[in-house]
Amino acid sequence: MPNAETTFTATVLGAPRIGPRRELKRAVESYWAGRVDAAELHRVSAALRTAQLTSMRDAGLDSVPVGTFSYYDHMLDTAVLLGALPQRVLDIDDRLDRYFAAARGTETVAPLEMTKWFDTNYHYIVPEIAAGTRFALHPEKPLAELREALDLGVPARPVIVGPVTFLKLAKTTDDSDPLDRVGDLIPLYGQLLAQLAEAGAQWVQLDEPSLVTDLSPAELAAVETVYRILAATTARPSILVATYFGRLGATLPLLAGTGVEAVAVDFVAGGDADLRAARSLTGTLLVAGIVDGRNVWRIDPDPALARLTELRDAGVRVAVSSSCSLLHVPYSLTSETGLEDRLKSWLAFGDEKIDEVRWLATALHEGQDGVAQQLEVARTAVRDRHADARLRVADVRDRLAALDAGDTGRAPAEERRTLQQDRLGLPLLPTTTIGSYPQTGRIRLARAARARGEIDAAEYARRMRAEIAEVVALQEEIGLDVLVHGEPERNDMVQYFAEQLDGFAATAWGWVQSYGSRCVRPPILFGDVVRPAPMTVDWISYAQSLTPKPVKGMLTGPVTILAWSFVRDDQPPADTARQIALAIRDETVDLEASGTAIIQVDEPALRELLPLRHADQPDYLAWAVAAFRLATSGVADATQVHTHLCYSEFGEIIGAIAELDADVTSIEAARSHMEVLDDLNAIGFDLGVGPGVYDIHSPRVPSVDEITASLRQALKAVPAQRLWVNPDCGLKTRGTAEVSASLRNLVAAAAAVRQF
Ligand code: GLN
Ligand code: ZN
Question: Which residues bind L-homocysteine (predicted)?
Fold first, then answer.
């Protein structure tokens, strides 16, 4: 039972933490580089937390999430909290260094794995446990951050990853089922709740996003057990179980029945699916995630209020909230002085979303009079957005409507293979790379000089051409068969295209944490996508002019551009994907006309957008594949289409990979020992495939023998006629010396295996 009966009306589920000007990124990286000490890192972090807590308090949230700050990642924080670090890391004495070693590794200690957080582009550290892991509570961080917040007069609600999600996302090193350990964690969570209550917390938030995935009956039983037991704990704060990123379905009544005081439901990602079940909540506080925590659009107030009112009128106790943590959106619009005013009026970043939560709660609980002005501004903005002509460009819509099946198919793969082989005359086991070459200091300096206006476009182009010429010469000298231009002109594989397409806008400070100190700045896709001019043709044809060998044209695919942008929410993503695909298709046609014989369309984010519920997956895969095929079927059958996929567990999308129908697919495989090839065989895949033969995430140069062994292994699954030889991914984060050495070994290994 909780200490005292309390309630609240307005909150968010978590806050961004990297700093409005990426202060934490700089502090952490300076600490890693030995330029500042731990005290300075703590000072910067405390200042960021104080600013954020007081701003949420002053904005009028009557319950404020606390402890969503992290030096690196909240799953890693939870592993520390539960004493679940592997022994190799525990051997490091200093607490902070041990923490960062777990995240990033050291010379001698391998880091924990990292993978994507549900269907977002945020990466968490994967806890490593085994049947023998002895959990123990280390509550210093949540307790300290709670005290800090209470001292500031903040109505603090500590946020902790819940036991089910923690275990579901953990991996075991001994094949045991992580969820078997839930019984060991419950008492630790019980103790933690008691200590938080003792320290003055009235509420605690246990994050359980795993509850929006398909759970087995045994897993559901575990959920019920965990929360029944925790709810029965004496002397504890009130418990909010926070779910997000999808619909709960039958898990909602199950949770409510356990006796926890509140459940957070995501009414953005989950739509209205949980509305009916939510209406029958009696007693449980419904934390209604109605303000989109993952996208940047200002809320449309009337439909939102209608849904909230419906719940309230059904007798439900409702608090208004963001749909998930605000970790996934930028801090504040006020920094965006360069954005067009009209577009800016349509947007809400973190601070603005907190305001939206506040006035929606006021409108719901106290009537609309007190917030009439906020409501009017929001209504006007939404109306203005929908009236903007850039959201409906007739030419694009007409062209898409006129396309039929004949426009998106190619000849059978076998026919294409013959035509392409005649045109290209490549050897068996052709060698190539994934696209980017090292982004040298020289390239970054040129880009910065161009951004500051110190050099003009012509000088910038001259410098980029010099880079291209060097990379082409290097590849010729190494003896690769299919060359690339090296992508020096691209800051980022999505932003580069977004900057050249109409319908996108770029932010100045819209940084979002991707992992650790790494941030991305997703473009805002607000309108219909139009390609005013070719985007890559000059660079590729310049590269091709330098060599008789084929140079691959390099494009980013529609699904990846969609996944790594803030996307318009006024039409289904499938429609937006088709528009992007059309622009990419036009680019492939122009590349082909300029003499490019091979075009690669990268889709590294294909797996990321896969819906969390199995029932939703076929529909997604159908439109994602269709978009890729639309983008790649405008070229002749003699033009070879490549794609590249990475950062993924391919299991669930293996069928879709085949349906992409790319002539050649390069795919991350080095770390998973080529297992993906067996998976492809199992579904009868018979197109070209380039399983990455070495891992580019490490600076280590692979030996000829190692690569030879990888290739021999690949040949057990793939006939030589279909096998390509390439690294796992692009080389932009590596140094030139190691790249050159690695690729020489790759070419030598291919030659050795061809002999055989
Ligand atoms: N062509 C891109 C590169 O080589 C692909 C990057 C990626 O897979 N994320 O950098
Ligand atoms: Zn890749």
Answer: 434-436, 487, 602
Tell me, yes or no, whether 348 and 493 share the same domain: no
Mean pLDDT of the chain: 96
Residue 607 CB less than 6 A away from ligand 1:
no
Looking at residue 526, what DSSP letter applies? Answer: E
Q: Could you tell me the pLDDT band of residue 303, with boundaries at 50, 70 and 90? A: very high
Q: Is the pLDDT reported for residue 1 higher than 70? A: no
Atom 1, ligand 1: residue with shortest CA distance: 435
Any idea which ligand is nearest the CA of 647?
2
ipTM over 0.95: yes
pLDDT at residue 648, rounded to an integer: 65
343 and 481 in a single domain? The answer is no
Residues 342 and 430 in one domain: no
- Element (DSSP H or E) covering residue 347: none
Residues with Cβ within 8 Å of 155's Cβ and at least 6 positions away in sequence, in order, are: 8, 57, 61, 62, 63, 64, 202
Is-contact 44 50, C-beta < 8 A?
no
Q: Which residues are annotated as a binding site?
A: 22-25, 116, 121, 434-436, 487, 518-519, 564, 602, 608, 644, 646, 668, 729
What spacing in Å lies between the alpha carbon of 126 and ligand 1's midpoint? 24
Distance from residue 190's CA to the centre of ligand 1 (Å): 46
Please check whether residues 576 and 699 belong to one and the same domain: yes
- Centre of ligand 2 to C-alpha 563, Å, is 15
CATH, residue 258: 3.20.20.210
Which domain does 686 fall in, by range?
421-436+465-755
Whether 697 is catalytic is: yes
Give the containing element (helix H, strand E) for 16.
none
Cβ of 729 below 6 Å from ligand 1: yes
Whether the CB of 604 sits within 6 Å of ligand 1: yes
Does the pLDDT value for residue 651 go beyond 90? no
Q: Which amino acid is at 568?
A: R
The total number of structural domains that make up the chain: 2
pLDDT in tens, 156-179: 999 999 999 999 999 998 888 999
Proximal ligand: closest to the CA of 554: 1
338 in a domain, yes or no? yes
Q: Tokens 């793939």 — which residue?
A: 718
Q: How far apart are CA 660 and CA 634, in angstroms?
A: 14
Residue 568 in domain:
yes
Q: Indicate if ligand 1 lies below 6 Å from the C-beta of 255.
A: no
Three-class SS of residue 490?
coil
Structure tokens at 70: 């992290």
CA 436 to centroid of ligand 1, rounded, Å: 6
Distance between Cα 388 and ligand 2 center (Å): 37
Same domain, 128 and 223: yes
Rounded CA gap, 488 and 435, in Å? 10
Distance of alpha carbon 345 from alpha carbon 381, whole angstroms? 6
Domain match, 372 and 428 both: no
The separation between CA 240 and the C-alpha centre of its own chain, rounded to angstroms, equals 26
Nearest CA to ligand 1 atom 5: 730
- What's the pTM value of the predicted model, to 2 decimals? 0.96
Of the residues 123, 518, 644, which should be mutated to test ligand 1's pocket, given the most ligand atoms within 8 Å of the CB?
Answer: 644
Same domain, 618 and 539: yes
Question: Which one is predicted more confidently, 702 or 404?
Answer: 702
430/348 same-domain check:
no
pLDDT tens digit string along 510-520?
Answer: 999 999 999 99
Q: Which of 250, 256, 255, 249 is nearest to 222 (CA)?
A: 255
* Domain-located, residue 563: yes
Instruction: For 202-344, list the strands marked E by DSSP.
Output: 203-207, 238-242, 262-266, 285-291, 317-322
Counting from 1 in the atom list of ligand 1, the atom nearest the Cα of 556 is 1
